[in-house]
Design goal:
Keywords: Membrane, Transmembrane, Transmembrane helix. The protein is mainly α and 229 residues long. Helix content is 76%, strand content 0%. The chain has nine helices and no strands. The termini are far apart.
């Protein structure tokens, strides 16, 4: 297994974790939030440097459904990250106070809501690339092939994650946050900090799995249609 691929996978997982951590603003002090966000932006830049060849070959590849959705998510992520970067400069209180605006309530709202959309888009993006991610992961742990039993266990685990992700979406009022509506939920970090991260991780897992299996279903139907022609 290529060591660079392992390194990239670890960095990408850290980036996803940082997105969730940044959503826990009321658990962090403002300085920690800004530090996490700065590291996240740095990892995004590193991710794009590693994938720079992909951009050069976009117009040369034949676009199927998976690649189209992947391209849409990449463009959406680029827009979201740009919004996050610009708004973070305008509301920074610790790391970049010289660029901050006074008040800027609307900017804070845009910054916050964009963060939730980023989590959704990242989940979909990972779903389009999940087979690649899993292949790298299996190579890291020295498991080039899976048995029928291992496959069944993984599918059961996926189903549980998806079910918990649906539950967490309601518990965390995720839909309301995506629709730019205020929700009255305030997570009690004194009661359970781990629960916050587990809930949002399961939401990411839900969109990863839904995208991955949805695209597999579309691909299977396309192959059957071609076989019948």
């Amino acid at each position: 297994m290529n060591g660079v691929l392992r390194f990239r996978l670890v960095l990408d997982l850290i980036a996803v974790g940082l997105i969730v951590a940044c959503l826990a603003y009321w658990w962090l002090d403002n300085l920690s939030h800004e530090l996490f966000g700065t590291v996240l932006f740095t990892l995004v830049i590193v991710h794009n440097v590693f994938n720079r060849r992909w951009y050069g070959g976009v117009t040369k590849r034949k676009l199927d459904v998976t690649r189209i959705i992947n391209l849409i998510t990449i463009v959406s992520l680029a827009i979201a990250m740009t919004i996050m970067f610009l708004t973070s400069l305008l509301i920074s209180r610790d790391l970049f106070p010289l660029t901050a605006m006074g008040g800027a309530f609307a900017v804070r709202e845009i910054h916050m809501f964009t963060g939730y959309w980023m989590l959704l888009i990242v989940g979909i993006h990972l779903g389009t690339r999940w087979q690649v991610v899993m292949n790298v992961f299996y190579g890291m742990i020295g498991m080039p092939a899976r048995s029928a039993c291992q496959t069944a266990i993984l599918r059961l685990l996926t189903a549980l994650i998806m079910a918990w992700g649906v539950k967490s979406s309601f518990d965390m009022a995720f839909g309301s946050k995506l629709m730019l509506r205020y929700s009255l939920d305030m997570w009690d970090f004194n009661a359970s900090t781990l629960g916050f991260f587990v809930n949002y991780a399961s939401i990411v897992g839900l969109y990863i799995a839904a995208t991955h299996f949805g695209l597999r279903l579309v691909s299977m139907r396309a192959r059957r249609r071609m076989a019948c022609e």
